[in-house]
Please model this.
Amino acid sequence: MPLEVHARYTRDEIAAAFGEMNPGAFREGVRYVERERADLLLVTLNKTEEHFSPTTMYRDRAITPRLFQWETQSTTSAQSPTAQRYVHHDVEGSSVHLFVRETKSNALGIAAPYLYAGPAHYVSHQNDRPVEILWELERDLPADVFHAARAAAG
Model:
């Protein structure tokens, strides 16, 4: 996988790095790439009503530089195959990769790139539809990203 932790990438570059030739498949910000056995989580921290519906205003945020709270899609139940794949990914030999950006686009309206926060490992979960999952990153978030991600959900 030709990605460097803490480098920034566009959605197209992320898709290509995992062998996906259809970046449109990432429309919802999550994608399981079966041949790579990898879940890709693309998070926008500061969500606005202009770009996100009420059911997609997820409370994604950093708890510490290494712990990240993330919410699944609103239709995902804790018992669903998708949620169970997240929970058991280490045991089942799949990986989870977290990508974070502060806003959807820059001042010129161009899509903002994502910071590759790196591989993440399941810690715990709670709630249902959406499921709130706590991930532990292999490396601390950079300080500026941590502060933006900590402030995102209030």
